[in-house]
Design a protein that fits this description.
The chain is mostly helical. It has a domain at about 75-120. Helices cover about 70% and strands about 0% of the residues. The protein has six helices and no strands. Helix 3 (about 55-60) packs across helix 4 (about 65-70). The longest helix is centred in the C-terminal third of the chain and has 29 residues, at about 75-105. It is elongated and about 80 Å long. The protein starts with 5 loop residues before the first helix and ends with a helix. About 5% of the residues are buried.
Length: about 120
C-alpha cells in the first residue's frame, strides 16, 4: 500500500487550503489570494532592493530570466527613479571629463589651446 494515494493527496490539498485561509484571515488580506501573489511581491521587492535578474531567477527557481520578468513589472515611480539615477551618473561622468580636461588646458590663454602651445 503506497503512501501517495489520491485520497491522501486530496486530504493534503484540503489541509493546505484550510491553512492558507487561516493565514489570509490573520493577515487581514482579502480574497481572492493566490500563492502566486507572494512570489510576485517577493520579486518586486527584491528588485527594488537592488537584486539583479539572474540572481532573482535563481532565488525563485526559474530556469530563465524571461520567466522572472513575468513576475517583475516596474511601477512608474521606479522607472522615474531609475531615469533620475541615470541622469546623476551622466552628470558625474561629464563633471569628471571636464575636470580631466582642465588639467590639460590653461584657459587663460584662449579657448581650447594648451599652455604648452602658447609658450612655444
Amino acid at each position: 500500500m503506497g503512501s501517495d494515494t489520491p485520497a491522501l493527496r486530496a486530504e493534503a490539498r484540503c489541509k493546505a487550503e484550510l491553512l492558507k485561509r487561516r493565514a489570509v484571515a490573520r493577515a487581514g488580506t482579502k480574497e481572492p489570494f493566490r500563492l502566486y501573489d507572494l512570489g510576485h511581491t517577493y520579486a518586486v521587492r527584491a528588485v527594488m532592493a537592488g537584486a539583479d535578474l539572474p540572481t532573482l531567477a535563481a532565488l525563485l527557481g526559474h530556469s530563465s530570466i524571461r520567466m522572472t520578468t513575468r513576475y517583475v513589472r516596474p511601477a512608474e515611480e521606479h522607472k522615474r527613479e531609475a531615469a533620475a539615477q541615470l541622469e546623476v551618473f551622466k552628470f558625474a561622468a561629464m563633471q569628471k571629463a571636464v575636470e580631466k580636461t582642465r588639467g590639460r588646458y590653461n584657459f587663460r590663454y584662449g579657448e581650447g589651446q594648451s599652455a604648452e602651445r602658447q609658450s612655444g
